[in-house]
Amino acid sequence: xxxxxxxxxxxxxxxxxxxxxxxxxxxxxxxxxxxxxxxxxxxxxxxxxxxxxxxxxxxxxxxxxxxxxxxxxxxxxxxxxxxxxxxxxxxxxxxxxxxxxxxxxxxxxxxxxxxxxxxxxxxxxxxxxxxxxxxxxxxxxxxxxxxxxxxxxxxxxxxxxxxxxxxxxxxxxxxxxxxxxxxxxxxxxxxxxxxxxxxxxxxxxxxxxxxxxxxxxxxxxxxxxxxxxxxxxxxxxxxxxxxxxxxxxxxxxxxxxxxxxxxxxxxxxxxxxxxxxxxxxxxxxxxxxxxxxxxxxxxxxxxxxxxxxxxxxxxxxxxxxxxxxxxxxxxxxxxxxxxxxxxxxxxxxxxxxxxxxxxxxxxxxxxxxxxxxxxxxxxxxxxxxxxxxxxxxxxxxxxxxxxxxxxxxxxxxxxxxxxxxxxxxxxxxxxxxxxxxxxxxxxxxxxxxxxxxxxxxxxxxxxxxxxxxxxxxxxxxxxxxxxx
Length: 484
Known about the structure:
There is one protein chain. By secondary structure, the protein is α/β, with parallel strands linked by helices. The chain is 48% helix and 13% strand. It has helices at residues 7-23, 46-61, 63-67, 79-90, 107-115, 128-132, 136-142, 166-176, 186-202, 220-230, 249-257, 260-265, 275-280, 341-354, 357-367, 379-389, 395-407, 422-449, 454-458, 464-482, and strands at residues 36-42, 69-75, 102-105, 152-153, 160-165, 215-217, 236-239, 242-245, 286-290, 300-302, 307-309, 312-316, 326-328, 333-336, 412-414.
């Protein structure tokens, strides 16, 4: 994987190495006869939680027993539930649990906790060689302290892929000549979606205007941030903790034309909680989502009165035509609460064990998350771990991981740096364009039911003036949320 520039990594490693020389202890403060007990909070559920618990139990029975560390893990439910529990603990809310020793955290939340002075400096416990084993951009993302030292330990990451209902795609492709090559760019996806709408509309000549949506996407904030980055713009530019908002009109117009316009016309869609749900109900044929969503891609389409099995295709997420090959870097890491040397040291020892290639890939085989060590991000290592541990891996998850591994040399992973009010600003990216598109699509659908053509029904929503109104409202909302 590539990463923009080398300076952030150099600064982070230099700061970490300097503090390591000054503060990292050569002798372990642990005593197997007097083990340290650690509490971990996370947001894993279902099979992910089960996989994590198995690894925790394995650690306690092996390396933990040898070193004098005992780990107890607790799911807090959803990401928002976990964040609320952490904030309650930090603020000393009545009835709140004590801060855990380790907890899962995205960068924006970790930045808040760091500003409160509640996170341990992980650079005290990792030397330059150890840091160098991890994917560079994952370490850079975790260096959120003002002095450039590490606060977020990378444990499992993800990016985005495109998943397609192969069974119904082949029917469409055979009838129209559509090609998977068309889906490598956002513009190609938009064109294919328009053709799919027209084709499905033509199948019911007695019911004009009932074409079906082809494509949708999860995480609109990713579309905005990564789409703009592919077009050469960094929306949130952070230097020295200071934010500069970059919202040039022309690149945003391309994002509008390749999401809002096809949404309003019914070429794209968003109906259930996630786009994999929409594939399951037959309302979409393809979507862009996290690698961790692969396990939820359905095995069949379930209609009101029938169902049928489907196969799948995994592809790299589409990029804007002529743009850079940027892909989102996402996924929470683990942070360590500031406490004492024994607990902080023990916490880092557990996290280093969890991210060893064999353990990390075992978790990834169930969760769809990418491993964080450089040496683990390849098909050969994945196959070795599956064979060596006798793992049963869902084909969709296996194909998803290998699709990303194949793209790693050509993609540049990107995530914006943390800043004050980052969560609020990201919500504007998540909802501004999507909510406007949903509102206006409802109006278009109502006009279609009244007998208007698609062109008549959507015409007033896809004008230059309509874009200008959205653009001004978007910029105002983003500035307000970011405190600009």
